[in-house]
Specification:
The structure is a homodimer. Chain A contains 9 helices and 13 strands. Chain A is an alpha+beta fold. Chain A has 2 domains: about 120 residues, PurM-like, N-terminal domain (60s Ribosomal Protein L30, Chain: A), CATH 3.30.1330.10; about 150 residues, PurM-like C-terminal domain (Phosphoribosyl-aminoimidazole Synthetase, Chain A, domain 2, Alpha-Beta Complex). Chain A is globular.
Amino acid sequence: MRESDLLRHIYTRSDDLAAAFGDVLVGPGDDAAVVRTSSGDRLVITVDQLVEGRHYDPATDLDLVARKAIARSVSDIAAMGAIPAFGLATGLIPRGYADADDLFDAMAKWARHWNCPLIGGDIAFAGEGQPLSMTTTVIGKLDPAANPTLRSNARPGDELWLTGQVGGSFASGWHLRFDPRLAAGLEASKLPRAAAIDLSDGLGRDAARVAVASNVILEIEAAKLPISHRAKSWRDACADGEDYELLLALPPRPPEAKAPPINTAPTLIGPVGQVRALHPGESPTATITDPHGSTHDAQSLGWDHE
Amino acid sequence: MRESDLLRHIYTRSDDLAAAFGDVLVGPGDDAAVVRTSSGDRLVITVDQLVEGRHYDPATDLDLVARKAIARSVSDIAAMGAIPAFGLATGLIPRGYADADDLFDAMAKWARHWNCPLIGGDIAFAGEGQPLSMTTTVIGKLDPAANPTLRSNARPGDELWLTGQVGGSFASGWHLRFDPRLAAGLEASKLPRAAAIDLSDGLGRDAARVAVASNVILEIEAAKLPISHRAKSWRDACADGEDYELLLALPPRPPEAKAPPINTAPTLIGPVGQVRALHPGESPTATITDPHGSTHDAQSLGWDHE
């Protein structure tokens, strides 16, 4: 069974969650869940795994492994427009692994760096030769005035923006060194409505997820994309994955506006496309128009882990 | 490096956490962390791993595997006197594993059973033949009037109580079928002060943890322990582990009192011992006096995973 099938089943099973549990505002299926505490505070919660040989090369510097383990979850918090507050980490450590203490030390350091100190965790030991694997749970806070930047918030007429370039993340090492786009998410959450997703499985597939969640078409123009010089083609750039940039769908600017609708560092790039309504009989998806004017289904690009 | 050494390093590194991050009320080292949200709500958070071949036999029924994956974390919430509210689960699934969908379905079911529905998670795939492993994060709520039942809350003169019997958990299958002692934890949290720990590594070692956290001596009397008929001896019963009962240190009752100091189902068993102050030069630990009157250091019993 592929990851996408498994996830679809999980989301279907969770459809009634918000109705059955009133404090669950957003359940499985977005970058993170949103819950409400007794006094009405809203928290954003996510968990991610990082597996040796799958998400990083075994020869990778330990500090960068720890960095990525924390940063992936922080990026999910950014994609909801929230602020990291607390973290928890687990390690499944192969017997004989000599660096466990340094690894946890480095994870604790990076968690503090992003203001989500590790308040708990768990250690277990696996057989010799088995891959090291970690999980990171991060809990973020939403400002009382914030509007979480849900995948389902894109509307026809919105413009599409990126926080940085896409493609070539493995070749450049960016997949280990990325900066979660907390400032951009936070600024977007101050708008009355914005949609965001962090790009982990490739712009094509992740844009399609926003389209499905919002029941719209996302139209991306390849010629407008900020493509890494390390990507071989626009197609590779949309499929490589692990960009950890945010794709944002933001309400259109007034006709005379030149600057992006939110002011954040680094400056948003775009618009790289727009959102339109479904035609009768059409299914939600993302499309990418290549520099020659041909349109491609974005959903067929990108990673589906199996 | 042994688990206990690793954990000691982690706790030492985390010593300044509550001072550096004001919303961290209890950091690593108790059954769960306690944090404060912006409006002052208190949450209790824990994460645990469950690894095939380590925490359960590969032939174990899938539903019981899922049950244990959730119940272990719920038990940590119980040991803090909190109420489960939200859950997240991850799975590291060996390639070719056919039951991933059923596994997540069963985890979702048990999470709802204990009122901490799965609001998020993550799936990754491991190589064929590698052990299945899961993590469960559970977030609990503390009532505004509750006093979390910290390991550090035991005081000289307290009586020691158990929520059920110890020993023989693997032989009986109790380690798969235990009921997290939420009611007992909740009742204890209504007292002005109570200490609790959930027994995962054996009564001996876990009692010593309470002693160290509280800087006292816990004196347990073997003859008063409710020992499973499946345990070969009091010594085995204190070392087997995975009882998932709570050990509670509760203020002494008035001299004429017959009943336990809190009324909960199942009825507390005890007192099985008492808490005393350190003598000059003495280090905190737990002791177990055997039926012949000899006293043993409890810390040397029980599990230290390596």
